[in-house]
Description:
Rossmann fold; 2 domains; 15-stranded mixed β-sheet; three-stranded antiparallel β-sheet; 15 helices
Amino acid sequence: MVKPIPKLIFRIEPAYSFQQELKAPLFRENNILVGMIGCGLELEAIFLGKIAEYGKNLNIWLDCEGAHAIYVIGKRRSGKTYTLGVIAEGLVSNKWLKQGDQKQAILVLDTMNVFITSSYSVKEICKERSKEFEEFKKWSLEQEKLNIVFFYPKGSPSSPEGVSQEIAIRPADLDDKDWAALFNVDIYKDPIGQLISELYEKVALEGYKDLNGKYIQANQNYSLIDLLNCLDNCPEIQRSYQSDTIRAVKSRFKAIKRLPIFSEEGIDIKKIFSCGQLSILLLRDIDQNLRALLVGILIKKIMELRSISDRFERLCRVHRERFEHFKEIGDEKKANEAYQKYSEYKQKAQEGLPRGWIIIDEAHNYMPSRGITPSAEPLRKYVNEGRNLGLSIVVATQNPSALDPSIRRNADILIVHSISMRDDIFTAEGMVNTFIPDLFEFGRVKISTRVFEQLVRSLPIGYAVISNDMINRVLVAKIRPRITIHGGIEY
């Protein structure tokens, strides 16, 4: 159902001019849709901002019917984290900011805890004559109570405000590659990595004989104590590896055992990735390697459970259509059989997870272009395969050249805030998937050389160049104000 959209008739200043006319999908007069994929009967989109070009009074909406990989780039203080907040708010809004009734799960991986203020509205915090409040009114925004839950790693501080829940890592959720990545070793080249791999196989997959010849069965729900016992009591390991290597692995696992974030309880992913809920995972107060490990485990669990739901959702659609077809032609027996299948698969789909969005700030910490990190491979798989499961991702970085190339290849929507480093500008330009005009005007200046570079250098805070292959050229946008308090304070 399309909700009434206010008439936002005001001039965006400063504004840009391009000679080439903009052609983009329209869903209503003066409202363009970025990222349109499907042709569903109902519009599913969130309000992103307005065109910042002379002579155009166009609202910009971001499609959320399809699954997307969105790349947000910008230097410090350019507005990229603010844009992540705008997208997150829109996805859980029940007001006009979100068109359509479809509910999805949203998980924000908050590296620097800047989303910790999201439980408060601009309208209830900012003074009436403040700039924030005036912008709130100008854009016809409405106060609303969003369904936000904060999650924090066990052993780190909880959010002082709002609903918060503790999460921990269960050792048995890690395989040999996870442990090796946590310790920054290679399971093929490094003796420590080779020992970790064999240790995992014996404890979790194969079992082993101890020093007394007793067979210890494999246990997929293993604990850290099981790993340490195997190191001490497996003669095959003691024969195959030098004592220094065994000692090094043992000291690492003993150090891990002392960390409060590791627990036998682990993560209930259905609480974190829940339909219609904005989950914010506060990561600032733990070590970067542990952040990456936690993120990697979450991503793997989301992919695993979402694939269950997707499998049965696809079959549900088939059997619903069969039911309607047989009912229409009067074949009651086949219609009943089809409906029973539909009901059965609909129930089984509930065992997995809903469609959803992962939003990552400072994404180069989790998907670096080089080096070993526990989250890199799970995120690479999510980027490459997630859209087939109805999973979207939004990543933000101030250092695009340091981010894994897979996201650069797979991004279908690019949002570029101001950039000043030439290498980063070159990387961003290489990702643009539509036409870059030959010239533009900004103020009284006409630019016709190094157009993209000059364009992104000139962007004021909160402005962005947007690229999508369903639009005939890049466009310049003013991102809308937040409805919740932005926590990105600069010192």
